[in-house]
């Protein structure tokens, strides 16, 4: 979702990165959406739908008797999402321009979902509470987001540890919370939801994973300006042009298993 608080941008490179990221975390996302209460036949609102990956994934869960409305305020991402939907031939997905903070539906939904949105919203509780009105009684809100506090390599690889600290500093400088998933039990409770639940899933990469270094450095690249503005590292120390190669080499040399942030699902029901 592109808002004044969204620091990662929405140019072509970032849209491609989002699609790569979506593929990597697709399996835990589906598990968490199903655990949170998505079922066939539901009418679902997807907040901050970006290039459409979550909407497309949810459309498979709800099936032909269900439907998905993706809400996104960035025109570039909306255009990409619509092109991809048409290419896939999906008939149960629509997209609409709108702001997740203020959107009010004409008719209530069975479920509202979002992924990697709440981390960018300092007013996350208010946004969750706002969307209770977009749910029918008994409807569910399911959010998926990151908890970066569990990122690590074993054995420890110094460069990977430093990259994690750079990302943390960049997100914090941009007033984003990369560990917001850990707060889900409190956020959903304070937003007035009932039957609140949470579950975190962790992906583990072997030392020779061919995607891992590119995935991590892709986030660094997208957050580059905020990382430097935070003062945690200089451009020369970061050396973005060689970072992916250096990181991959050091992980392989150490024979290290490493992780992405914990992928956390949080959910609650409108009483």
TrEMBL record:
Gene Ontology biological-process entries: methylation
Gene3D superfamilies linked: Vaccinia Virus protein VP39
MF (Gene Ontology): methyltransferase activity
Pfam families: Methyltransf_31 (PF13847)
Methyltransferase domain ranges (all copies): 39-147
InterPro entries given in the database record: Methyltranfer_dom, SAM-dependent_MTases_sf
Keyword Transferase in record: yes
Keyword Methyltransferase: yes
Organism domain of life: Bacteria
CDD domains the record matches: AdoMet_MTases
Keywords in alphabetical order: Methyltransferase, Transferase
Protein name (record): Class I SAM-dependent methyltransferase
The species this protein was found in: Mycolicibacterium rufum
Upper classification of the organism: Bacteria, Bacillati, Actinomycetota, Actinomycetes, Mycobacteriales
